C-alpha cells in the first residue's frame, strides 16, 4: 500500500558533521535505507544517503581555501620530499584545518550583493559553511598533496647528471606525465638515476647486526625513532585508516621486510651478497658503484655498446623487491576489483 513521502528540512547548523542539515523522510523503509547506505560502518554513520540541493557549492571561500590548500600541500610535500626521511602532510590535515577557517569566513565576510538585479549579480558570502564546500576543498587539497613522479626525472637530470633543464621544459615534463598517467616521458634518468634520498651503504656494512639492526644501512630492527614520518613510514598515517587495513599492511610489511628480503639476501638471489642489503645505489656485478655517465652518449641517450662494455647493472635486493612488489600491486589491484566487485 503506497503512501506519500513527507520530508522536512531541519534547521541549519554550523557543526562539522552537520547532521541537522540532513533530510529526514518518513517514507523510507529500513530495507531501502540499508540498500542505499554504505556497508562500511564508519561511512554509514558519517555520510548521509540524502542530499540538500539548496547548499551552495561553488563559493568564494571554497575557491580561496581550496586553492591555498592545494598550493600549500604541494609545496610543503615536495620541499620535505628531499629529506632522508620525507615528511608527508596529507589532505586530512587540510581537511581539519579548513573547518574553522570556513566558519570564520562565513561569519566575517560581507554578505552584500554586488551588481544586484543584473546578470552579473554575486555575493562573497552565501551563508553558513557547509559540508559540500568542505568536500570540494578537501578534493583541492588532495590534488596537491601528492608528488608528481616526473619530479624524480627532473631531480635526477639536475643533481646526478649535472644537466641544465629550463623551467619550461621541466614543467612540460611534469604536466605531460601527470596528464597521461603513464611514464612515457621518462628517459634514462628515470630508470637509472633516481633522486636518491638514502645514503648508499658501503659494501663493508655486511655484518648481520648492521644488516638487520641499522636504520641507515640495514632493515632497522634496532632503530628507535620519535619522528612520526619514521614511525608511520610503512603506511603514511595509521590514524586515518581502518584497523583491518592497518593490520593487513603491517603484516605484509613485516613479511617482505624481515622475512623475504633477508632470505633472498642470504641465499644470494641475483648475487645479492655482492651488494648492500639496503641501498638505492646502482652496482656492477663485483659490487662497485655503476658509472651511469659512462653509458650515456652526448645526446643523453643510452649507448648499448658502452653498456655491453661496462657490464650488466645490478640493484640491491631490497630495491629489486621494492620494484617487483610495486608492479605486483598493480596486478593485485585489478584482480581484487575483479574478484570482489565483478559480476
TrEMBL record:
Membrane protein topology class: Multi-pass membrane protein
Transmembrane spans: 62-81, 165-186, 243-267, 313-339
Entry annotated with the keyword Transmembrane: yes
Keyword set includes tRNA processing: no
Gene Ontology biological process terms from the UniProt entry: protein transport
Broad class of where this protein is predominantly found: membrane
Subcellular location: Membrane
Pfam families documented for this protein: OPT
Keywords assigned by UniProt, alphabetized: Membrane, Peptide transport, Protein transport, Transmembrane, Transmembrane helix, Transport
GO molecular function: oligopeptide transmembrane transporter activity
Entry's family note: Belongs to the oligopeptide OPT transporter (TC 2.A.67.1) family.
Protein name: Oligopeptide transporter
Organism for this UniProt entry: Anisodus tanguticus
Amino acid at each position: 500500500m503506497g503512501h506519500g513521502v513527507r520530508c522536512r528540512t531541519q534547521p541549519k547548523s554550523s557543526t562539522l558533521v552537520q547532521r541537522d542539515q540532513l533530510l529526514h523522510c518518513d517514507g523510507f523503509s529500513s530495507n531501502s535505507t540499508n540498500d542505499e547506505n554504505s556497508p562500511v560502518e564508519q561511512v554509514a554513520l558519517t555520510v548521509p544517503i540524502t542530499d540538500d540541493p539548496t547548499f551552495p557549492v561553488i563559493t568564494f571561500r571554497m575557491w580561496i581555501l581550496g586553492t591555498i590548500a592545494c598550493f600549500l600541500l604541494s609545496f610543503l610535500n615536495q620541499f620535505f620530499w628531499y629529506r632522508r626521511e620525507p615528511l608527508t602532510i596529507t589532505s586530512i590535515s587540510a581537511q581539519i584545518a579548513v573547518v574553522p577557517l570556513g566558519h570564520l569566513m562565513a561569519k566575517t565576510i560581507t554578505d552584500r550583493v554586488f551588481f544586484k538585479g543584473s546578470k552579473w549579480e554575486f555575493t562573497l558570502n552565501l551563508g553558513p559553511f557547509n559540508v559540500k564546500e568542505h568536500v570540494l576543498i578537501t578534493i583541492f587539497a588532495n590534488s596537491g598533496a601528492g608528488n608528481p613522479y616526473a619530479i624524480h626525472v627532473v631531480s635526477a637530470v639536475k643533481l646526478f647528471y649535472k644537466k641544465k633543464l629550463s623551467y619550461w621544459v621541466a614543467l612540460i615534463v611534469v604536466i605531460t606525465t601527470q596528464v597521461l598517467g603513464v611514464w612515457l616521458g621518462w628517459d634514462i634518468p628515470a630508470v637509472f638515476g633516481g633522486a636518491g634520498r638514502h645514503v648508499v651503504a658501503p659494501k663493508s656494512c655486511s655484518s648481520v647486526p648492521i644488516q638487520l639492526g641499522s636504520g641507515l644501512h640495514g632493515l632497522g630492527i634496532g632503530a628507535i625513532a620519535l619522528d612520526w614520518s619514521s614511525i608511520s613510514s610503512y603506511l603514511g598515517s595509521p590514524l586515518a585508516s581502518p584497523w583491518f587495513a592497518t593490520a593487513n599492511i603491517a603484516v605484509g610489511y613485516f613479511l617482505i621486510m624481515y622475512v623475504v628480503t633477508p632470505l633472498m639476501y642470504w641465499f644470494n638471489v641475483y648475487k645479492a651478497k655482492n651488494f648492500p642489503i639496503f641501498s638505492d645505489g646502482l652496482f656492477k656485478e663485483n659490487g662497485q658503484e655503476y658509472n651511469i655517465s659512462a653509458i650515456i652518449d652526448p645526446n643523453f641517450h643510452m649507448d648499448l655498446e658502452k653498456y655491453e662494455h661496462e657490464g650488466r647493472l645490478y640493484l640491491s635486493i631490497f630495491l629489486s623487491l621494492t620494484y617487483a612488489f610495486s608492479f605486483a600491486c598493480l596486478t593485485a589491484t585489478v584482480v581484487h576489483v575483479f574478484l570482489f566487485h565483478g559480476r
